[in-house]
Amino acid sequence: MILFFSCITIKINLCFPSIPSSLKTLSIDGHFDFEQVEHAAKDFGNRYSYLPLAVLYPKSVSDIATTVNHVWQIGGGSELKVAARGHGHSLQGQAQAHRGVVINMESLQGLKMQVHTGNFPYVDVSGGELWINILRESLKHGLAPKSWTDYLHLTVGGTLSNAGISGQAFRHGPQISNVHQLEVVTGKGEVVNCSEKQNSDLFYSVLGGLGQFGIITRARISLEPAPEMVKWIRMVYTDFDTFTRDQEKLISGQSTFDYVEGFVIINRTGLLNNWRSSFNPQDPLQASQFKSDGRTLFCLELAKYFNHEDMVLVNQEIKTSLSQLNHIPSTLFISEVPYMEFLDRVHISEIKLRSRGLWEVPHPWLNLFIPKSKIHSFAQEVFGNILTDTSSGPILIYPVNKSKWDNRTSVVIPEEDVFYLVAFLSSAVPSSTGNDGLEQILIRNKRILDYCEIAGLGVKQYLPHFSTKGEWKSHFGPHWEAFIRRKSTYDPSAILAPGQRIFQKPIAYS
Ligand code: FAD
């Protein structure tokens, strides 16, 4: 240590080669790996790869605090960065650290999951816990979290650093609106408990904070009684205005449904045939006569939770609610599945795609939040002109209520009371130069973003990634100053910079 500190005073950059050996001196319960680090330079996006110097496999919160504190002591001049890696399902290297330290959050074993029952049930979990495990554990007590993502093989720390949204968000808000308390390791390596009442600025900074203010080591997540079953419903619209009017009606007031999403289909054949493997048409004869070919279709997806004993009542409620919607009657499909199967639905697709070698391909996803007042202009241009088909992946579209989002968190959303998530979830065919290739999808994404910019739609990116300070400033808009203040409070040397290409000191503070 003495050698190390004297080295700092001479010239910090000369210390860089000795960083691995200085990390080796740390007294921790887990371990560092300096050799097998390639996997930490990969993510779901499959487009960015930054090799770290070391991967920390922490066994305790104190391992993380010791490591972060050590990096803080070295000082910003070393340019050593720390990135928490949840399940590595980022799209653009957000959980990577070029020549830095990646903390493998899933190996954090300090806390056993603990479900607390009672009037206001909750579960205490590690920041590296997968949501699927939380579901399994809380179901043992007849409980479950209220707000989800469509895919559950993601970590608590990973989704809380963004927002965590799905079809339940219209009612419960995103996952960041359903957390009571966090334990966070800040940029100085201090372990701090925070909540709405205690260290609240840190609490709200970290929620939606893109991993920029600290590392979430523990979270207390709100639970509700879990239903046994789900009525899972799909139906088709050809008219966008009618589709969005129904979606907006469904998320306002006392909706019958527990989940509201939707997706767009452009120039695809056999849509209803695909549904038939898991859904029953309400009217099989009419459904068989519906021809989707070539048309742009908007599919509404709804879910209603229920317990077996309430079946009759629930069927009646659904019938009444559906009668108030304006979908094409012959395209109504209903299925009934266990709650667990509904929530874990994307994992089934993952297994299929993996078996065909189609999971680990580049994923140039584009996720946008679009103000309600602009969704029609957006749809006209993007679904009408820019996109010619939806063969490279699903396009989700659904509205949420801003009132369910807490404006004290770090997440950036549009100003209007209702805004839409539009998610272009593309998979690129490796080495293709056609429409399904990476290059063409990126060109298409850029056209969409350029259009939003030129038309002044007030769109915000979800799961954002930018390369310049100007772009980040524009993303944060009026919240930029607050972001900088929070960054300098909790990460004064800007060491926690998973998006370090963007957030490193000279760019964020200059
Ligand atoms: P990582 O990719 O490992 O990390 C994400 C970010 O969080 C990084 O910046 C990282 O440094 C930081 N981070 C990770 N752990 C911590 C921690 N403990 N403390 C502080 N910072 C941390 N998102 C939705 O909202 N809704 C969806 O429906 C949805 N569906 C998805 C489906 C699939 C198939 C995939 C691949 C992603 C989906 N996502 C969805 C996006 C997902 O929420 C983000 O990609 C999320 O970041 C992934 O979580 P992860 O655990 O893999 O995090």
TrEMBL record:
This is cytokinin dehydrogenase. PROSITE patterns: FAD_PCMH, OX2_COVAL_FAD. GO terms for biological process: cytokinin metabolic process. The keyword Signal applies. Keywords: FAD, Flavoprotein, Glycoprotein, Oxidoreductase, Signal. It comes from the Eukaryota. The keyword Ligase does not apply. Its cofactor is FAD. Pfam families: Cytokin-bind (PF09265), FAD_binding_4 (PF01565). Its EC number is 1.5.99.12. Residues 48-226 form the FAD-binding PCMH-type domain. InterPro entries: Cytok_DH_C_sf (IPR016170), Cytokinin_DH_FAD/cytokin-bd (IPR015345), FAD-bd_PCMH (IPR016166), FAD-bd_PCMH-like_sf (IPR036318), FAD-bd_PCMH_sub1 (IPR016167), FAD-bd_PCMH_sub2 (IPR016169), FAD-linked_Oxase-like_C (IPR016164), FAD-linked_Oxidoreductases_BP (IPR050432). It catalyses: N(6)-dimethylallyladenine + A + H2O = 3-methyl-2-butenal + adenine + AH2. Belongs to the oxygen-dependent FAD-linked oxidoreductase family. GO terms for molecular function: cytokinin dehydrogenase activity; FAD binding. Coiled coil: none annotated.
